[in-house]
Amino acid sequence: MSFTLNSTAKLNNGIQIPRLGLGVYQVPSGKSTVKAVKYALKIGYKHIDTAMIYGNESDVGKALKDSDVKREDIFITTKVWNSDQGYDSTLEAFESSLKRLGLSYVDLYLIHWPIQGKTNETWKALIKLLRNGKVNAIGVSNYSINDLRETIQSSDVVPAINQVEFHPFLYQKDLLLFCKSNSIHPEAYSPLTRGKRLDDPSIVRIAMAYEKTPAQILVRWSLQHDLVVIPKSNHEERILENSQVFDFHINQKDMDILDSLDENLRTVFLD
């Protein structure tokens, strides 16, 4: 697959999502988030992923306002948090997110986690937002195959995205295949294992062979599995590094080695 920083993937409703984005999970609110997002946009990122629970939606909004990039050229994702789930409360939570972001619409709105007894009503609220033109696409996050089946069976709208933790050490192959077979595009968060496996000998050896960093190998691995990928950083040098993954291709032998590293390593849990 040949990609550039401007490459997009087509979602099941025809919307194009940039394949590489900047995640701002655990990026401190205030100047840190504003600076990181402004820098990412400056060097060519077009996709920013935030959430209500991150506490930095307003900072993302400020960076967008201060940026020279046109709003229509930027893809913004945010998410409804667990305590706001339910039909009416989701609609209210969305309007609050929209106000904090300072936007008139969001490109992608996600259910952050599946919550038993609430997600069906939450999904109905997302469908309403979609049909009212408040969002361009809707999806879910942290959904298992069973969670996805329940949503698909209960609605005539299939999620456009399932955003999950995904990297060679958590190679969710069955979930990946299920998503693709149901026209749900998988999106990888924590693709760098939150730094926990960047020193793995196989990763280091492959990185040296391609004259790349371990982080760049992990981002490229996700791209070559046809995922949208949103590495997180608030350091400019790493934001730049994570974007410099389009001038090489991991061969199949090395992809197979990376695929074999799965150890069901999860670095993010529902608190």
UniProtKB/TrEMBL annotation:
Family: Belongs to the aldo/keto reductase family.
Domain of life from the UniProt record: Archaea
GO molecular function, one term: oxidoreductase activity, acting on the CH-OH group of donors, NAD or NADP as acceptor
The organism of origin for this protein: Candidatus Nitrosocosmicus oleophilus
Swiss-Prot/TrEMBL keywords: NADP, Oxidoreductase
Keyword rRNA processing in record: no
Pfam families tied to this protein: Aldo_ket_red
Name of this protein: Putative oxidoreductase YtbE
SUPFAM superfamilies assigned: NAD(P)-linked oxidoreductase
